[in-house]
Write a structure and sequence with these properties.
138 residues; mainly alpha; two-stranded antiparallel sheet; 7 helices; 2 strands; Golgi transport 1B; transmembrane helix; Vesicle_transpt_Got1/SFT2
Length: 138
């Protein structure tokens, strides 16, 4: 069984990397969320940052990750995101997370409509997003 991606055909051995990447990314998001809930715990936020970036690299590959972050028009966003990661790792979690969240929104703002469209198709979450006060007029 082969897996088609935009760069060509990949064999089943690459599916394992995708699964590992999704797991790392999921754990990274969990640790980031849990670290924020626990009053910006430095260790949890640092682990979450490392897992998230590593998971992204496993899912789309190192070269595509590098190209994504270092496009000319995304340099400001990358600076805020990676600068925030560095500041969290240094030990100032609140300032680092503010910079990181700002950079994250700048980097991934093109993906948000796709994510919202996907979530609208999930049974319970889709119902909540389609409530009158939340949904936008289309």
């Amino acid at each position: 069984m082969e897996h088609k991606v935009s760069g060509g055909w990949r064999g089943p051995e690459y599916l394992q990397y995708d699964e590992i990447g999704m797991g790392l990314t999921g754990f990274g998001v969990f640790f980031l969320f849990f670290g924020m809930i626990l009053f910006f715990d430095k260790a949890l936020l640092a682990i979450g940052n490392v897992l998230f970036v590593a998971g992204l690299s496993f899912v789309i590959g190192l070269e595509r990750t590098f190209r994504f972050f270092f496009q000319k028009h995304k340099m400001k966003a990358t600076g805020f995101f990676l600068g925030g990661v560095l500041i969290v790792l240094i030990g100032w979690p609140l300032i680092g997370m503010i910079l990181e969240i700002y950079g994250f929104f700048l980097l991934f703002r093109g993906f948000f409509p796709v994510v919202v469209g996907f979530i609208r198709r999930v049974p319970v979450l889709g119902y909540l997003l389609n409530l009158p006060g939340i949904s936008s007029p289309t």
